Amino acid sequence: MARSTVLIVSPTHTRSLEVDARLLAWLRPALIGLSVATVLLTGALAVVGQKYLSEGATSQQQIGHLQQELGHLRQLTSAEINAKLASLKKSEQVIVELQTYLQARGVHVRPVSIEPPAGQPNPAAGGPALPIARSVPFTGSFAHDAHSLLQAIQAVPLGLPHAGPLSSSFGARSNPFTGRGSEHHGGLDFKGTSGEPVQVTASGKVSFAGWRGGYGKVVEVSHAHGHATLYGHLSRIDVEAGQTLAAGDVVGLLGSTGRSTGPHLHYEVLSRGNRLDPQQFLALNAAPIKPWME
């Protein structure tokens, strides 16, 4: 067996070591391979480290960009919320004003009906006898023409002109003097005591104030968007033609002038000359409006 002598020299002593030559021949390429692998591993670690550092910098940039966008989004959302809150506050104010107005108009109150059965005389009814005609669809568009909900509501005849009970409804009825036959009634009759105040149901301008046939002393008020209201059988008129009125103003006193069987208010609602059933305007939860044309 071939052997080789290896001298190990240190500062204090020298030592010899005999090693099998074949073992050295086998270890040499292993050591060379290990050195090469170490170099390659070191290079790979350097490349991976560089890539990691580069990706880390990119990620930091992306995170910074996202944080900046989030900040802008928060600012935008805050501005939008502030705008919504301001709008809501304004809407709440309008709603409060609207509720106050509707409460004052009494639209949540329905009058008690004391209309007698068909075939019996009515002691608190009247108005001119009109020919019966067929109904036509109601095509009013006041809501679309109005710039403000509150202004539109104030211009529409809502609520009660008088707090008395309903003694005669809109449409076909018996003759109030005899209780027989049939005639068309173009409005509502509210029973009351002579001298009680009668209120206009919407803002508008007096278009007529005076005597008109079967209506007796009557006041007619024109409102926005083609609406009008009529108050008949008054004992006294407290307004004059051309006068501007606000909803709730007194137009006169209840009476029994004209074609009347007793003290009551005859109340009509018209849209561009077409008579509508006023009862549909007395409450917000009423049924669809019924028109009538002469």
What is the total number of structural domains? 2
- Give the ordered list of helices and strands: EEHHHEEEEEEEEEEEEE
Query: According to CATH, what is the class of the largest domain?
Result: Mainly Beta
Assembly category = single chain
| CATH architecture label of the largest domain | Distorted Sandwich
Mean pLDDT: 76
List how many beta strands DSSP finds. Answer: 15
Cα end-to-end separation: 140 Å
Instruction: Estimate the global geometry from the Cα principal axes.
Output: rod-shaped
Entry summary:
The protein has 294 residues and is an alpha+beta fold. The protein has two domains: 65 residues; 187 residues, Glucose Permease (Domain IIA) (Distorted Sandwich), CATH 2.70.70.
Describe the overall structure.
The protein has three helices and 15 strands. With 294 residues, the protein is an alpha+beta fold. It folds into two domains: 65 residues; 187 residues, Glucose Permease (Domain IIA) (Distorted Sandwich). Strands 3, 6, 7, 8, 9, 10, 11, 12, 13, 14 and 15 form an eleven-stranded antiparallel beta sheet that branches. Helix 1 runs parallel beside helix 3.
Observed structural traits:
294 residues; alpha+beta; eleven-stranded antiparallel sheet; two-stranded antiparallel ribbon; 3 helices; 33% helix
